[in-house]
Design a protein that fits this description.
4-stranded mixed beta sheet, single chain, alpha+beta, 2 domains, 16% strand, 3-stranded antiparallel beta sheet, 5 helices, 59% helix, 9 strands
């Protein structure tokens, strides 16, 4: 009965110790999975990983203290079965030491990566500043090109009777004033057009006269009802001599 009682106590101690070791292993394995991922399985940020590493480091320290207590109690028992259990505990202690080393390496690695990321972020910010400056310069250049392009494509049109043109002082040549007064071509007296868009114009006259020297063959006049349509066939040729178009109506 005494032997049975002693064996029962040893068995209960063995079972209790195995339960503690099993719980320790399960706890470590579970926490290790949660270092990099949340409960839902989504990746964590570097700050969260670092916090988990510190927590896991504390967990390993608590498990190590618990194993030391078990080793002390089992060392006093001294049965063959418990000696085998001591080997299991020693293995677990070795695993804890390896995990602790891994935590230190990961913590150092994260620290180095944070410094590298900080340098990269500073470099990226500088590049973004350069890109912003280049974009502003490009916008200014594009605006200048647009203005220049508009100026190159600006032309001016004036349609009126001889009397209206004379009153505007656009005609010269004595009493009849049949010639254009090029010295008095004021843009404010004309309608500004874009030669890229200005392809034709309807003239409220059956026999209009184009007074400016527009090259023949670059346009044609088409009688429509009581008026006339000026079709510009070749805009580049049409505006090659002058960017002013003066048309006299009857």
């Amino acid at each position: 009965m005494n032997i049975n009682q002693r064996q029962r106590q040893e068995l209960e101690a063995l079972t209790s110790t195995m339960n503690i070791i099993s719980a320790s292993l399960d706890s470590i394995a579970q926490q290790e999975r949660l270092i990099y991922f949340s409960q839902e399985g989504t990746p964590l940020s570097k700050r969260q990983v670092l916090e988990n590493l510190h927590f896991f480091e504390g967990l390993l320290e608590r498990q190590r203290k618990q194993i030391n207590v078990l080793q002390d109690s089992l060392r006093q028992a001294g049965t063959p079965m418990i000696e085998k259990l001591n080997k299991v505990i020693a293995f677990l202690d070795q695993q804890l030491a390896e995990k602790d080393k891994t935590i230190q390496e990961l913590t150092q690695d994260l620290s180095q990566k944070n410094r590298s990321i900080s340098r990269l972020q500073s470099h990226v910010n500088a590049l973004q500043g350069d890109i912003s400056d280049l974009e502003q310069k490009n916008q200014a250049q594009l605006k200048a090109l647009d203005i220049q392009n508009e100026m190159l494509n600006e032309c001016y049109v004036r349609i009126g009777t001889r009397k209206e043109l004379q009153q505007a002082n656009l005609l010269t040549g004595g009493i009849l004033r049949k010639k254009i007064n090029y010295s008095n071509l004021n843009k404010e007296q004309f309608a500004k057009v874009d030669i890229r868009q200005f392809k034709e114009i309807t003239i409220n006259s059956q026999r209009p006269k184009i007074l400016t020297a527009m090259p023949k063959g670059s346009y044609r006049l088409e009688s429509v009802g009581g008026g006339t349509i000026l079709h510009i066939i070749d805009p580049a040729e049409f505006w090659s001599v002058s960017n002013y178009l003066i048309i006299q109506t009857n």
